[in-house]
Amino acid sequence: MHVLPYLVAVWIFLVGCYGLATSRNLIHAVGCLAVCQSATYVLLLAVGYRDGATAPVFSDVKPGSRPVVDPVVQALALTDVVVGATVTALLLALVVQVAKRHGTVDPDELSELRG
Amino acid sequence: MNRRLRLWLVGVGGAGLAALLVAACLDLPRFGGDRHPYGDRAVRASLSRHTANTISSVNFDQRAFDTLGEMSILFAAVLGCVVLLRQTRDEHRDRPEPAEVARPVRGYALLVLPVALLTGLYVIAHGQLSPGGGFQGGVVAATALHLLYLGADYRALERVRPIGVFEVGDALSAAAYLVTGLAAVLAGTAFLTNTLLPYGTFNTLSSGGTVPLLNAAIGMEVACAVVVLLARFLDQAVEIEQDKGEGEVRAP
Amino acid sequence: MTDAVIVVALLLVAASATVAVATRDPERQALVLSVLGVVLAVLFTVLQAPDVGLSQLAVGSAVTPLLLLLTVRKVRRRPRRKEPPP
Lengths: 115, 252, 86
Fold this sequence. Notes:
The structure holds three protein chains of three kinds. By secondary structure, chain B is mainly alpha-helical. Chain B is built from eleven helices and two strands; from the N terminus they run H-H-H-H-E-H-H-H-H-H-H-E-H. Chain B has one domain (36-242). In chain B, helix 3 packs across helix 10 (211-239) and helix 4 packs parallel to helix 10. Chain C is mainly α. Chain C has one domain (2-77). At the A-B interface, helix 1, helix 2 and helix 3 of A face helix 1, helix 2, helix 3, helix 4 and helix 6 of B.
């Protein structure tokens, strides 16, 4: 239990990398990159967790009455989620351009075209 | 490089990376541990500035400069998409044919739309108090708008979201964030310092100094960005067609 | 009790991430990714991070799969050229 969350994050990251390397379709590759990104969120939040603590929001908890989890890593993960989505959108826009120019989204066929 | 060699390389590299990452994991502080020096300090700083939601305080006060960087990435990504997905000379627009949507789905979409939109705005407005804020609320509000595509049709969606207005809104909110930061400089402190406004009463809507202002700017920026992004992708997927002639002329 | 919930959520996330990568058809992958988004949001809520859970729910289960599906539609609609251009 003490290392399981970290190992899950490592597993997600490696699986995503495997998918990226063996992908035959650029759209699928972008999806795999999204999987890799989610590994970072799991790792960040796992680092910040504290046993028996509550969320660091004090609108209904009296400050100091209960331990809270680490808010810094949550803030990092939160901005990353939204900004990551727009970067995914940029990559997908590039895929659309590749499909328009070359008529294929298979990375292997694309490298043959260039060579 | 052929496929086999590449897979082999990926395997070796992946195994090495896996070994290193697992070794690193075994040395990390244990999951659920009680030692969070940065977290404790962030909570103390947030309470001293009367911001109930510590995460908003970290995002828009203690690490506001970092959020400025994130916002610039967002802005640049949207700009890139707009440039990449514009209509080129060898393309034309086709009127999309209205698709069949089951009546209950239509009714439900129209029913949920105002609720979702209001939820998004509520989440933005209460960012400094309860879980939520500009980043989440912006996405919810922008996505809610697109229920109109399901509930009515594409034309109706295009009428309620003039893209030009949202592009201007995107730039304006990015500028508003910068201006709020510069106002602190003019007041004689550092860029983006939260000393401009009174901190207010803890756990009320106007608490937290400049946190609600920056939060609102980010909310508007994210909402406009998501609307513009989805609009560009919808345009490409539904309306814009490549001219038949051009592609065939270029093919051998 | 909380530990058990966290372990279950973690295993669900790992499983859905694996399925998302193993699904080679991008259209189906988008759907699996939206499931992954929901499971991640549950995990974040269990880990006491409601802010991140909310943002993951909005982005991971709606915006990203929608963008992927729109791209699939755009790319599929084009007639594929048989031979590479000169």
